[in-house]
Records
---
Amino acid sequence: MVLDVGFWVVAVVAVASGAAVFIVDSMARATYALALSFIAVGVAVLMLRQDYVGVITILMMVMEMAVMAVYMVMFMGMNPALMPMSMVHDNRRAVGAAVATFVVLGAGALLIPWPTRRGAPPADPTRALGEALMGPHMLAMVVISPVMVATIVAGVVLAAHRTRYDRFGDDLRRRPARDPRRGGVGR
Amino acid sequence: MGEPMVSGVTTVAAGWAVFAAVLLGLLALFAAALDGVATARAERSVAAGGGGRPGGGRRGLAVPLLEAARLLRQCRRVPVASDVLLWRVGVAGLPVLALLMVAVVPLGRWTLFDLPVGVVWFNAMDVAVWAAVWLAGWGPNSAHSLVGGYRFLAYGLAYELPLMFALVAPAVAAKSLRVGDIAAAQDGLWFAVWMPVAFLIYCMGALAFSVWGPFSPALGADVAGGVSAELSGADRLLLLAGRYALLAAGAAFAVPLFLGGGAGPLLPAWAWSLLKTVVLLAVLVLLRRRLPAVRPDRFMEVGWLILLPAALLQDLVIALVAIGRQ
């Protein structure tokens, strides 16, 4: 009973703070409204006894929002991030898309014949979920992770305006590298 | 992990959270008093050597209480166009996060919250400190505060991953993320002894998320106090107390993770837990006067080129030992 009430409370908090992202007029408030939404989702997952998934959701999302605060000042030219600003654009089409999505998903949730539960929940739901997700595909997962890391590194390298030729000279022989700021390990 | 492992830790009633809060408060007060004494001593020796003002004296011990009394009577000052909501959330967040951290730390045989993923919980709370400190820097609409907040995030990007991988080592060795299991897995040999790199990186992480010692430039005098620049009255008290509470929580969590939990001769388990926490906390407090401040921009390379590979190598060694033992 207490758990049911708690679940509904965090569900409402998740949706309301998700909506707040578009209502507030500051980047900081929008960022942390989103963080609050994710924390509420993490607590809801925790209540489903998916301890690891719930806590890791909170961890990753709070970290992500903090990093977003770095990006928001780093990449937003004249720093509108520091001023009050509207969090929406292209209003009419956005509202149309949102209503259409809501109707489709809501109709799906109401009209689908939900299956009845077969069997009992496992003793360790996190382990069961992991095996269901990963079990037969472990090789694929192991291959995908280095590919994803390589993609991130490649993306950063392509986005950086300084290349290795700026750092090490045309023949790549200059040591130490010419950096705008010296590193912390004596280079 | 089919059946729960026997960790010898019992969960106490939720009402004991008040006791935990009081205990954390006392530890924070101890840390503040110790720092007050150390500061008074340093000032005295400077005064003796350089002919400066005498004094400081024995009042060091009472400094935190006097300061708390002063701040509680001080009028609260709010800068123009500040985001008061986010500011208050950030400042009050620090002591709250410290309390959430100690919720999973067993005191001897008792724990408030015997979460099967306690280590991840602690990690999530220390990441939330990023958000709290940045919000406290953002809120007052002041350039100096904001610089302080970003300094902390710069440290965060450098220290957090090494800290995460340092937390992995005890969990791998104990084959559990439950804090009680990790404490129980160290009979005879403390994890601090055979995973010293992970322990040292953890201690660095505890200093860092408490904005303490080498990582205090986020509150630096060169940016007029950084995150604390605009804080006054009860808000300032919360931030300063929150730092000490975080330091205390960091020391308390190291005990089950690296220092054998409540294990020890003669004294009961809770006393050993408390004793080890107090000793480590004292070391962390006094380190402030021994270590230089690190620059946020330079520390990034230290974190990624030295600490992270060191932590990963430590994890590899621990994993190989854990496999070899099976």
---
Amino acid sequence: KNFLEKAPLGSLDESTLATKAGVDGLLIGAYHLVSGFGGAGGGWQTAASNWVYGGVASDDAYKGSDPGDQPDIVPIETYTSNASNGYFNQKWQAVYDAVQRCNSVLRVMAKASDISDADKKRIAAEARFLRAHFHFEAKKMWNKVPYIDESITYAAGNYNVPNDKDIWPNIEADFQYAIDNLPATQTAVGRANKWAAMAYLAKVYMFEKQYAKALPLLNNVIANGTTASGKKYALVNFSDNFNAETKNSAEAVFSVQQSVNDNSNGNNGGWGDVLNFPYNGGPGGCCGFYQPSQSLVNSYKVDPITGLPLLDTWNSTDVKNDQGLKSTDPFTPETGPLDPRLDWTVGRRGLPYLDWGNHPGNDWIRDQNNGGPYAPKKNVYYKRQEGSLTDKSFWTNGVTANNYTIIRFADVLLWAAECEVEIGSLVNAMNYVNQVRSRAANPNGWVKNSSGSPAANYMVGLYLVFPDQAYARKAVRFERKLELAMEGHRHFDLVRYGTAATELNAYMAKEKQYRTYFNGKSFTAGVSEYFPIPQSQIDLSKGTLKQNPGY
Amino acid sequence: QKSLSGKVTNKANGQPIAGATVQLKGTTTVAVTNAEGVFSIPTKGTSGTLVVSVIGFEPVEQSISGKITFNFALSETISQLNEVLVTGYSVQRKKDITGSVSVVNVRDLKAVPAGSGEQLLQGRASGVNVITSGQPGSGSNIRIRGITSFGNVDPLYIIDGVQGSIRDLNANDIESIQVLKDAGAASIYGVRGSNGVIIVTTKRGKSGKATVTYDAYVGTQRPASGNPFHLLNTQEMATATWAALKNSGQTLTHPQYGSGATPIIPDYILAGGTAGIVGSSPATDPSLYNIDFSKPIYQIVQANKVGTDWFHEIFKPAMIQSHTVSASGGNEKNTYLFSLGYLNQQGTLMNTYLKRYSARVNTTFNIKNNIRVGENLFIYARENPQIGNLSEGNEISMSYREQPIIPVYDIKGGFAGTAAKGLGNAQNPVAMRVRAADNKGYSWDIQGNAYAEVDFLRHLTARTSFGGTLDNFYYYYYGYRSYENAENNGSNSFSENAGYNRSWTWTNTVTYSNVFAEKHNVKALAGIEAVESYGRGVGGGALGFFTDNPNFRTLSNGSSGFTNYSNVYQNSLYSLFGRVDYAYNDKYLLSGTIRRDGSSRFGADKRYGIFPAFSLGWRISRESFLRDVSWISDLKLRGSWGKLGNQLNVNPANAFSLYGGGPGSSYYDINGTSTSSVQGFIATRIGNPKTGWEEDVLTNFGLDAALFKNKLDISFEYYKKSINGLLFTDQAPATVGGATLPVVNIGNIENKGFDFSATYHGTASKDLKFDIGLIVTTYKSNITDIPGQYFEAGGSRIGNFVRNAVGHPIGAFYGYDVVGLFSGADDVSKSATQKFAAPGRFKYRDVNGDGKITADDRTFFGDPNPKFTGGLNLNVSYKDFDLSMFMYGSFGNDVINYVRYWTDFYPSFQGVKSKDMLYGSWTPSNTGAKTPIIENESNFSNNGVVNSYYKEDGSYLRCKSLILGYTIPSTTLKKWGIEKFRIYLQAANLFTITKYTGLDPELSGSNAAFGIDYGNYPNNQKNYNVGVSVTF
């Protein structure tokens, strides 16, 4: 009898974990998946930055790279996806794996006896904050998604949850619980705090167009909010948001904490964005994806007199580029006035690429014909950080400790501006926008040549007046585009505004002259706003899950 | 008590036969002949019968009738019917067997030069399918009677009574191999028997004078010649590039070929950062060259204007040699066998090899007349670094991905590669192989057992055997920092891994054997067995070594990126079993077995399983109505039914809900340090204590016949194997979370098929004799139920090629069915709406006829399971010459040539492309083409999804071995003290007949997805050997 009693080796059982330390560990396990990587699903398919779904599936960027590398992104970029596309299934799996990690915390904590009530509340609040975050990821992707709480388990057999209800109320409830029970400061900078929860709940209301509910929360966050380590929220030097050395600044409301050389085989180092580096040289060395679009670059042109963006005519002429030129051919970059944020967002020929020297153009581009002349930049590390803040174990050097910031304070200010446009004061809206623009206008934060002079003809002016609501709305939305470009928000913002079909169809109509694969493609209003529910999940649910309209 | 004595000789030549068993019929009194063929056996009376038997000869009986000396002249066995076979825990005469047992002819088996034991079985036993790659030392897919599970379907190997592995057995040490296929034969192995059981007995010494034998061969293996992937040369690639850009409306410009109406082949593909230099330039000044990492890399690489033949840069002729020396002998009391083996198989792929050093010691001791003890011991050491076969990243795949314009070396002997822009992201396969030279893989194994047998109470024998395996493995890899590729290793790295597995089996049996009234033959067996397995593994890695000097490589010498891991498992099995065989007058045969297994892999409630089986045989030829039919020597009908089990696909922890995790899956840098993470936990496994045994119900009908005075042996069998409560990982939507779901008993598979074997022994004249053997194996696997109705497998860059679905065979290929190519705009507009439809692109079949091509139009378009496989063996001897030929074939199986994804579509990465693409693709004037238009865009209607374009017929017929041997007449040799000397010439894999356009249609894989060519180490390399076999 005893001969056949073989305990499993090398693992823990629930009774061992049902202690404060064990439950804390489970919470860390849930935080792990904020990066999107290291659980179910893949890497780039599940990146926290949503560079595919938020970026490539918008006017921010092209898939880039070689036409045949990651071909599943092509239909996502051209709004021709079907439900069997493996990207969607991976993202779905990653999100719900993460949700159940949060639920594990709650389930095991219920069996622990050595945790104080205060700690229980704090732990539950963090777990529910994360659970809401992951559901939000699903909600913005697919709209109709199931909400999975801690009562859903394999053992209970109730895991086939339909996607027939709007889960905004569930997400709101989790964030509200987090607001009510989280401290303002935490022992670790990576933990969610009360203010992060409040900002996130405001974000939820923005998606619901509930401006009246969002605005007071945003006002409170702007007036009183601090980071988990107690820093008062503020705008910092723009480029500090995209640098591992200056991460978790006063601007970081909630971030993925990325680490390298930590025995994780690179898994904790932003594997989701690892493809998004120049090719054949420079940082990362691979794989030339997520190339900014010409249209995005054009957005950074400013009026030479006012220094304001060209809200209507921004895309009528192109910023000069080196398409079709070899790196050895002579090239002079654009000399017209540009918003300086361009050169922290986009790598372009002849401009300093962080501390890697000037971007050489074609030599770092995998296939200009397919992906255009530009390179991404916000996720890129500095040369001086190679090996210390990057992990060199792989075919890529793009595993970095550079956090992706899920919500940064500029985001909060611009939501507040949006709310003011819709239900408040245009003056307040303009002030928020100008607050963001003033930071951009500070020459200390501009990209510099080796001589120390500004690398291009930079210029940022402040708005003097928002003459009417329509203008204000346009200006605020344009500011979000400029400020948050290449951060994976654009597709979801356009859908939220309700302008996705108009803007993206105009975008493709313009871009198809450069990117021939846009020929004959269109964004279908009422369908393309949301992605198809993965077919394999529908099948596994035995039909409990229903497909989104139009797929 | 007195004794009878006598001599046993070979009727054919009068030579004494050593090691023959002389038995007083119906008793356990036995004696064994010595080297002179002489025996002495005690007896109490003057009546009774002596039976003499020895493997290879027909047994002979003589009545004692008062005599005290006897002469037995034995005829060599022609019919296999009297062969004594080792089956489950006992021996049986072949003619008494009612279950399904394939006997492997060990002499034929050794005719194929192979590094692993499993490979030898290919085509040698009906009902057994073997698929192997050409990589030295690689494992094989062995399937006995089809695929019964999506997980492990390896048969149970019982070597001298102990569970083990035959991969590294020395073929020269093998005495016999039997394959137990149906429940009647295999149920005695209960829960381990469902994938079939392969019983291997190793050689023992025979009493008589000591003999020493030496068997050896040495030869050369030759890789495929020609242009095996049909690839373009340098100029053709430039032409193809321009065609792709033109057809996609893109600018005619390329980093290497310039910007003009026609592409220009440059003189240098790389100089520093500059690509595509025509003539020379200041950048090509050799003094600028540097590949030392302490300074910026500056490579200068000339274009290979003719084109590099990458396949033959890494595949070279390679040597194979094998040597075995064995000494054996003994007397009536004790026997011994000692053998030493050495095998060195160099792979045709550079720096792949298998070296094995082995030793075997088998001894037996007859302590008293009724007590025997003995042991079998096999130890070996092997060196066998492996490459990851069937992978897009291995060197074989790189040989069809690296462009021909890239030379192997740059101007100063550094490696050249895709660092030169515009040439894709493949890696230099020569560099990969050269750098892999220091990678090592070792193992040291011990297998064996010790046993004791006691005869008591006249009819009973008790036996105890304790044995097991202990294997240790150790391997390490060193990764060099590279500079020549588009995507380089940023750091050198070292990983080191080791571990051990140990397993022991303790078996105790009692057998009873008696004959009542001359006609009722009864044998019974009861046994008890315990098996326990345990293993641990440990390993780690580090990065950033100060120097690449091999002497510096220890984990602690790394400078960063330290990782480590360890793992452990254990499981056990405890069983009771019994068997009864009854034969009435050698005419009606009845056999029953039952086994009760208890396994630690299942929860307490489901721990025990019972596996019964029954079989019946009817030797019709013993009936009076067939007695006079002279052309039927023997005819037997048999049938069996029984249950078997399988527990291989259950993790030992399946019953438990567990938590764990690791740095890469559950740790998090919650403190924002950037370089460390805090330990976290996650649910890793959801337990299911209700999971129980998988039950296989097998029904088998067989017909065995020996015809024309035993010249023709035929065996035909039909079987049905239903797997009920298939052990299958539960399927649930992702909302259940990411923990591993338990294996549960859901899912059914049904296999049906027939096995056929026939052997004809012919004698054309006194000097000319021949044997022809044919073996045919068929199976049909059908999935009758799995949760979720299907699951996908066989992943690729463009999705999964395989859907395992209810109502379809295992491993069926699934995707869009290509009707043809759109012939023009008119065709596009008239056809069903399809995304990215355009002239020259794939036109998919509108399976559901709704006028749109959607995911619902995917369909099953291929089946990797062969309709049948077969082996044809021919042996001819003429005087002292012998000739043998062995053909093996697989027929009616589809394969996926995924290599074509890389070579037939321009945008599938910028690697080298195929002649099919350049010369056989669609153009407005070649609308009947098979390959789509050349273009630089990847989408749903060209290379973006899985479709039937990749399917090819994988049938093949291969001449596995052709041997011509000559045995020097013994008269000549006697004066040298040599008994026998045979020398032979061999050609292995002399030819393969196939329509498959890839390297080799013999493609392994997992059991859920196989027959997909992702870059396979081919198993079809011609091999020419010369061998000797000498007996002293």
